[in-house]
Amino acid sequence: MADAVVGIARTLHHVAALTLMCGVHDLGHCVGDQSAGWFSVGGATSRGQYSFDQTNPDAFSPTIFLFDRRAGGVGLAPGAFAILPDLLAASRNVLRSCPCSNGCPSCIGPSKGAESYNPKQVALDLLDSIVAGRGN
């Protein structure tokens, strides 16, 4: 499940940068959970370094953050928030149009060998739920 959420954050980050017409490095993303235990900070070097308890998935309540990477901000994060439903729908379309089966660098990023589930499909299911208004 964590790979899917981190993949959504990655895709959302790239779609937001494209939509807001800024560089991908002008925005940042991270994923945390309500216990304040961060398990992903955007960037290839930290991907997969989770403090997520895989044995208790019910305790997993993720939150995705997009933020300005410039000191004081330049308004990118508020701009992304203002069009969040469109960004989520566009992210879902990116995943749907990618021909890979489990995730690749063009969509959610490569998964870490999730054998018990398909992270790309879980990401699609989560985005479908959020876009349909059933997620929070």
Break the fold down into its secondary structure elements and pairings.
Blueprint: H1 2-19, E1 27-33, E2 40-41, E3 62-68, H2 76-82, H3 84-97, H4 119-131
Antiparallel strand pairs: 1-2, 1-3
The helix content, as a percent range, equals 25-40%
Strand order of the largest sheet: 2-1-3
- Chain-averaged pLDDT: 82
Strand content: 5-15%
Largest sheet: 3 strands, antiparallel
Number of helices: 4
Indicate the radius of gyration in whole angstroms: 14 Å
| Alpha-carbon distance between the two ends | 16 Å
The count of β-strands is 3
Number of domains: 1
Task: Please describe what this structure looks like.
The chain is α+β, with helices and mostly antiparallel strands and 136 residues long. It has one domain (2-131). The protein has 4 helices and 3 strands. α1 crosses α3 (84-97) and α1 (2-19) crosses α4. The protein is globular.
